[in-house]
Specification:
The protein is of the alpha/beta class. The chain is built from 9 helices and 12 strands.
Length: 269
């Protein structure tokens, strides 16, 4: 799969500044194909190796996802990639352990109680995904229940103080704390001269917002949207470039890893 015509110059620029450049990505719909059952999602073939190759060359490489940290550690750990789960509520240590945001721990019991209520009260067609510090109500296989999922999560938030976050074919209840992909990216990319983020969903707009702020401060910021039938129009409009599906992302990551420096010498190994 070829890359859009305006990407090669960007790849060359990032490769020339690899020592002060960072490449960051979402997971679902970006490194992995969207599936009906969230537990069955896996990175597409070649994606873990491409991330590892990037981490060996660029200053910082990370995955910022709504997935639990343990999931990310299992499928992408041990490759030199910074892994952040639950939109910043969890991070994965170099040893593969999961470190929750301390202030989020006080919400775990509330989240467990809400998840149990959802499993007892909602129709089986609505998927209840327990993530530890958050719980998501999925209506992908039952789109006719979208209004019910929204109403139930809104009422649960009012009862418990949790916050509702619309996501791809789901509504997620999370601790009412400052955490999102933009905050994670701003911390992870601090001090870098070149920063790229690749995402496909509404939550990735927060990362694009962070890139806007970095660009205003003088960094080279590059926004990549992953195009699919479910991609929000705003994400595509705000992106500097769009690629087609996880396969397009993989092609981009491999091109970044393999790009020769501007002096024509081969990329570092």
């Amino acid at each position: 799969m070829s890359l859009p015509r305006d990407i090669p110059a960007v790849i060359s620029d990032f490769a020339a500044h690899a020592g002060s450049a960072g490449v960051f990505s979402d997971f679902d719909g970006t490194l992995a194909t969207i599936v009906d059952d969230p537990a069955s999602a896996r990175p597409i073939a070649g994606a873990p190796e491409a991330l590892e190759a990037l981490a060996a060359r660029y200053a910082r490489v990370g995955v910022v996802s709504g997935r639990p940290g343990a999931f990310l550690a299992e499928h992408l750990g041990g490759r030199g990639v910074a892994l952040t789960g639950l939109y910043g509520l969890e991070s994965v240590t170099a040893e593969g352990g999961v470190r929750p945001l301390p202030e989020a721990m006080a919400w775990r019991t509330v989240v467990d109680q809400v998840a149990a209520q959802a499993e007892a009260e909602l129709p089986p067609a609505l998927g209840v995904e327990r993530k530890g510090l958050t719980v998501a109500i999925h209506f992908r296989v039952a789109p006719g229940y979208a209004d019910l999922a929204q109403r139930w999560t809104t009422e649960a938030a009012a009862r418990t103080g949790l916050a509702v976050h619309p996501a791809r074919m789901s509504f997620e209840l999370r601790p009412a704390l400052p955490h999102d992909k933009g905050l994670v990216l701003a911390r992870a990319a601090s001090g870098l001269t070149h920063v790229m983020f690749v995402g496909d969903d509404r939550g990735d707009l927060e990362a694009f917002d962070a890139l806007d702020r970095m660009a205003a401060d003088g960094a080279v910021a590059f926004r990549v949207a992953v195009r699919s039938r479910e991609s929000p129009a705003e994400l595509i409009e705000r992106a500097d470039v769009a690629v087609d599906g996880p396969e397009g992302v993989l092609n981009l990551l491999r091109s970044l890893a393999d790009a020769p420096p501007r002096d024509g010498s081969p990329p570092p190994t």
